[in-house]
Amino acid sequence: MNLRLIAFALVLSIPFAAQAGTWHADAKSSTLGFSGIYQGDAFDGRFKTFDATIAFDPAQLSTSRFDVKIILASADTANSERDDSLHGSDFFDTAHTPIATYSATKFRGLGGNRYAADGTLTLHGISKPVTMTFAWATGATPALVGDAVVNRLDFKVGGGQWADTSMIGNAIKVHAALKLTAAAPAAIKPGVPREPKPMARKGS
């Protein structure tokens, strides 16, 4: 009888062991930023509106998953002229491609509390692999801090004169600092894009 009870308990535990905990980024205390080089000077920005659903368990990497949706028109670099250009057709083209997505289902342990997510970024209808390395803090409200590098020209961000990497560096660093909650956020929607203004070169 005891053996039957043990076997029954093991069967019941299988579905739970195979599932990673699912979390959502707390919009008020999470950030998704980016940085690059423009005409030799560093600039920083962030996406004000994004949603990240994180199903992650360090003991169950094979069932973990990241799903991130980014509203491109929410890009903010604290420079209105540059922001207008980012939203325009030369860069994010938010009127036609308002959303970028990142998803990952393959994860690797890097030692300690550090991991790598081998995912796919989709932007401008182009999907390419992007790896994010991150630290994971467990607890009642887990936290994730991660970094990735995106080559903007792979996704046709910055056309024409802006394809010149001496003008704008190709490598854009992305930094995520997410505080996670079990509560699902309200659905995010793209806003109405502003009429973009051309970004000027220095000295013009």
Descriptive report:
This protein has 204 residues and is mainly β. It has a single domain, classed as Lipid/polyisoprenoid-binding, YceI-like (Lipocalin, Beta Barrel). The chain is built from 2 helices and 11 strands. The chain has an 8-stranded antiparallel barrel. The longest helix is centred in the first third of the chain and has 16 residues, at 2-17. The model is unreliable at 3-19 and 192-196 (pLDDT under 50).
Strand content: 35-45%
Rg of Cα set: 20 Å
For the record, give the distance between the C-alpha atoms at the N and C termini, rounded to a whole number. 86 Å
Mean pLDDT: 86
Could you provide a short overview of the structure?
This protein is mainly beta. It has helices spanning 2-17, 80-87, and strands at 22-25, 31-38, 41-47, 50-55, 65-71, 75-76, 99-111, 114-123, 126-137, 143-151, 171-181.
Give the key terms.
disordered N terminus; mainly beta; about 200 residues; eight-stranded antiparallel barrel; Lipocalin
